[in-house]
Specification:
This protein has about 100 residues and is α/β, with parallel strands linked by helices. Helices cover about 30% and strands about 15% of the residues. The protein has helices at about 45-55, 75-90, and strands at about 30-35, 60-65, 90-95.
């Protein structure tokens, strides 16, 4: 007689600890704002508009861009470049521009 094992379609996974958002910056004057492009077609245009608006409103604000080169996880040197970039900016604005 054959025996069958019945498996549940419900998976089990560890629930990660929730992460808190970084604290909001007090202001942008004299700060370096990172602009993160996610490799979507409209993302650069969105961030161009954000940059123009912030330059017009905030004296002394500076910008640094990081372009995610692929639609996948950052690995190796790309990840290291991203980590260096994050260490050089005071805050980040991201754009998802489909």
């Amino acid at each position: 007689m054959d025996r069958y094992e019945v498996l549940s379609p419900l998976g089990e996974a560890e629930v990660p600890e929730p992460r808190r958002n970084a604290p909001r910056l007090e202001g942008l004057e004299g700060r370096v704002v990172g602009l993160f492009e996610n490799n979507k077609r409209a993302a650069p245009r969105i961030l161009d508009a954000v940059e123009r608006e912030l330059r017009a409103r905030v004296p002394g604000v500076r910008f640094s861009r990081f372009r995610h080169p692929h639609n996948r996880e950052l690995l190796g040197e790309e990840l290291e470049a991203f980590r260096r970039w994050v260490g050089e900016v005071d805050g980040v604005i991201g754009a998802v521009g489909d």
